[in-house]
Amino acid sequence: MTRILMVCLGNICRSPLAHGIMESKLTKDHFYVDSAGTAAYHIGNLPDKRSITVAKSNGLDISGQSARKFIVSDFDTFNYIYAMDQSNYSDIISLARNTADIEKVKLFLDANSSIEDKNLPDPYYGDLIDFEYVFDLINETCEILAAQIK
């Protein structure tokens, strides 16, 4: 089974959306998708209400997810680790034990050649429209990644 981890800062906005979207594009019998945050601000919390709303308006239910912090053993558990921005990428890499760990970590938007800024914006301090924009970017990129991973 191929295991994929989506990582943002608090695991309540971007990575839960990426988790839900990627999960919807892959078969559950061959792929496992999860998400985590590099910070421990929201451990145990549901995704942000705006993420849940945007996901639901696009036919996805992410309300069953629960925020957790990225841990070193995630390098052992997951084949692919996608960081939502450069700061998250650096935080994950700082925990890597070796080059094999580092090779698993990718900047999420690197997969999308149509996007110039490879840092997925954090919609937390924005409005619902910011969450919708981020959803669209994630959806487009997950489509590309799912095709590559399959």
Q: Provide the β-strand percentage band.
A: 5-15%
Enumerate how many helices there are, as a single number: 6
Summarize the biggest pleated sheet: 4 strands, parallel
CATH class: Alpha Beta
Give the overall average pLDDT. 98
CATH topology: Rossmann fold
> How far do the termini sit from each other?
11 Å
Coarse morphology:
globular
Number of domain modules: 1
The secondary structure category is: alpha/beta
Q: What is the total tally of β strands?
A: 4
The CATH homologous superfamily is named Response regulator
Helix content: 40-55%
Order of helices and strands: EHEHHEHHEH
Poorly predicted ranges (pLDDT <50, ≥5 residues)?
A: none
CATH architecture: 3-Layer(aba) Sandwich
Walk me through the structure.
- The chain is an alpha/beta fold and 150 residues long.
- It has a single domain, classed as Response regulator (Rossmann fold, 3-Layer(aba) Sandwich), CATH 3.40.50.2300.
- The chain contains six helices and four strands; from the N terminus they run E-H-E-H-H-E-H-H-E-H.
- Strands 2-1-3-4 form a four-stranded parallel beta sheet.
- The protein is globular, with a radius of gyration of 14 Å.
- The N and C termini lie close together (11 Å).
- 41% of the residues are buried.
